[in-house]
Amino acid sequence: MIIAVTRKIMAITAFLCLIFVASAQAGTPPFDKDAKPYRIYTSGKQITVKSTKDIKSVMVWTASGHRIVEERGLNAASYSFTVGINEKVFFLMLELQGDKRYTEKIGVR
């Protein structure tokens, strides 16, 4: 008799935990990685940024913190530059129309 009651309590507890976990995740939208309004293309040391909105500014720096590109007031849909140093990893900060900023890690060959 005690075993049957214990099983019922465990089943109810498991069911309530399942409902709580399922309802906590129902409101979160799925993460869409392709929702960025820009694309980054690399070809060797040539890097091109193309955007659906106007690009206001671009800043690129190395993994060690050295700034290699800083352009402000672009107001263009695309921007290209060539990396002149031997680094493999760069960070890009892009400011688009509407003061929205994006930061991304870029790898080049």
Please, could you describe this protein's structure?
By secondary structure, this protein is α+β, with helices and mostly antiparallel strands. It has a domain at 36-107: Immunoglobulin-like, CATH 2.60.40.3080. The protein is 23% helix and 50% strand. It contains one helix and five strands. Strands 1, 2, 3, 4 and 5 form a five-stranded antiparallel beta sheet that branches. It starts with a helix and ends with a strand. The model has no long low-confidence stretch (mean pLDDT 85).
Task: Give the SSE map.
Layout: H1 2-26, E1 38-43, E2 46-62, E3 67-82, E4 89-96, E5 100-107
Antiparallel strand pairs: 1-2, 2-3, 2-4, 4-5
Radius of gyration: 25 Å
- Measure the end-to-end span: 70 Å
> What is the share of helical residues?
10-25%
Could you give a short account of the major beta sheet?
Answer: 5 strands, antiparallel
